Predict the structure.
Amino acid sequence: MTIEEFMSEFTKQMEKKNILVLTGAGISTPSGIKDFRGANGIYKDAEDGISILTSGYLEEHPEEFYRFYRKYILTSDDIKPNLAHEVLADLENDGYIRALYTQNIDGLHQAAGSKNVIELHGGTSFSCINCKKEYSYDEVKNMDFVPHCTECGSLIRPNIVFYNESYKPGVLDQADNDFMYAKTLLIIGTGLEIYPIRVLVHHFIETMHLARFNGKDKKLFLINMGPTSIDGFKEDVIKYDGDVMDFARSLKKYRDEKNK
Ligand SMILES: [Zn+2]
């Protein structure tokens, strides 16, 4: 499917509003963020990344943990949202998007101006593992290499969901509810490898079948370069297998022409 074909389907459905967006690493790689699993991803370089991103590792080897975290995740200050983040913020502002779920921990959706962002895997803030005092990204960047709480002296951790941890209580229930009532699900830049997220998307596909049975119109759009775990649902998924930026540019053009 070409980007023109994809956009013609998407913009028709978009006008019905009530869109839910789900984003993954592919939306942020054009901003210079390294993804974890991609061809040039962090885990190609640091195979032990998965065992490092656990709470036990942080507490037992804080030095090594922060060597990894500062190298791969607290990277350059000049990382900025790209056109894809920006155009999604515009669409939310225009009343098309009801919520944006992201697997990313880079904070770029908020930086672009998106308001209703649900960070499934956490975000850019930090907190003390003992007294829970919160710290910003900038504060931690300028602290000692292994940062400690200014109140109680305990270790500071990133507020991300570690591999040995579950999602924040209630997040998946809220997501399930949102996915149930959305008219459109727009998935950008993820192969949907992560189990709980794949389950959410499967639920959406089930509600699509039900909606169709009841004469209603629910659609799933997917933009990802390369295979995804829902490629088997050919009948249900409208997929553009290409560059996220093609979509961002086309959507901006559509919106600009509409707002003339
Ligand atoms: Zn503390």
About this structure: Strands lie at 19-23, 97-102, 117-119, 122-128, 134-135, 156-160, 184-188, 219-223, 237-240. The chain is about 40% helix and 15% strand.
